[in-house]
Design a protein that fits this description.
136 residues; 4 helices; globular
Length: 136
């Protein structure tokens, strides 16, 4: 994993981010990663090709929130998402990881040991979940 420093310049990263953020929000999200000292965007490469990205926000001391996680369709279900989340486990100052997701990703987070809490229908017809993992 490496930090993506020029997210606005890399169309591959923008395409990956588009899998996690709605297409009309990609530029806005890229600007947030570029301009906020609390947001970091990381890319996962395989043989020099970007195959996934994960964006996090450092909310409070010892807590981070996964804002976006996406894997190229050709590399899904091969452990790339798990590898990106596991990268956060190595940060010595992180004790709590959270993420908000919809029903399609609940199993992914559950398999990684996160607990789920329904946030109800935040958008018409879409139930959202808060996923939480305490590390220490």
């Amino acid at each position: 994993m490496k930090q993506v420093l020029r997210v606005d310049m890399d169309p591959v990263v923008k395409q990956l981010l588009g899998y996690a953020a709605s297409e009309h929000n990609v530029d806005s999200e890229c600007n947030k990663y570029k301009n906020s000292p609390h947001r970091k965007l990381f890319g996962l490469e395989k043989q020099g090709i970007a195959i996934g990205c994960m964006g996090v926000e450092l909310n409070r001391l010892m807590e981070c929130e996964i804002k976006h996680i996406a894997v190229s369709p050709d590399y899904r279900n091969q452990g790339a998402g798990r590898q990106m989340v596991s990268f956060l486990y190595s940060w010595p100052f992180i004790q709590l990881i959270t993420a908000e997701t919809d029903r399609t990703a609940v199993q992914f987070y559950r398999k990684l040991g996160f607990t789920m809490e329904s946030l109800g229908e935040k958008y018409p017809g879409v139930e959202r979940f808060k996923c939480t993992k305490l590390l220490k």
